[in-house]
Description:
- This protein is α/β, with parallel strands linked by helices.
- It has a single domain (12-198), classed as Alpha-Beta Complex (2-enoyl-CoA Hydratase, Chain A, domain 1), CATH 3.90.226.10.
- It contains eight helices and ten strands.
- The chain has helices at 12-16, 52-62, 78-95, 110-115, 142-164, 171-180, 186-192, 207-230; strands at residues 21-27, 32-38, 40-41, 49-50, 66-73, 99-108, 120-123, 128-131, 182-185, 197-198.
- The strands form two sheets. Strands 1, 2, 5, 6, 7, 8, 9 and 10 form an eight-stranded mixed β-sheet that branches. Strands 3-4 form a two-stranded parallel sheet.
Amino acid sequence: MxxxxxxxxxxxxxxxxxxxxxxxxxxxENKESTLTIYGVIGDSWWSESTSASDVDKAITQAGxxxxxxxxxxxxxxxxxxxxxxxxxxxxxxxxxxxVTIHVDGWACSAASVIAMAADELIMGTGAMLMIHExxxxxxxxxxxxxxxxxxxxxxEDGIIDAYMSKATVEREEIRNMVDAETWFSAKxxxxxxxxxxxxxxxxxxxxxxxxxxxxxQAMRNELDQYKSEHxxxxxxxxxxxxx
Length: 243
């Protein structure tokens, strides 16, 4: 069952071009294993992909290591995404291990479910996360189509459970976002609770910058006061202000 039919066609071509890369490195001395998951999730007949079995094998080899995952995926098979999510969650529980996920580019569709397993989800500069409805191709009678729709709704309930483990909004709002196909920038993913950090420079003023701006404004005020007290401007001339 696929989870990758987009309503928003804006990024379709870019998503198709994400190259496959599944790589694993174990640093047992520092008790950390690194997984790189780029490209389609699940078994694919048309291109290289990363399945839940691939990830399961890598995590088994990691032993009790903490996991660092680098993720860049348009999504793929919903059940593979769910299986990978649960495999990561089980690893954390069994070994008291930490899972850190870096979204290097995209965490869309089934990949967004995987991202919810992170203790720390770090969104890279320009990275995006997308959630939407599950989809499948159905051929047959009206009864078959109704059964498939019921199955998709149950599947989505489970996926929303994963989102709600992080979300700071009500379940109904997340459901509406799923139905609408919603894209999150790094900042938006942090605001809703999905991401814990971003490598993007914050737009808000830091404390030091705020203090510097206050000092500069005080200096401008003093300069304006000095001009008004010591510089006489003839009445037949217009006063000019320079910025």
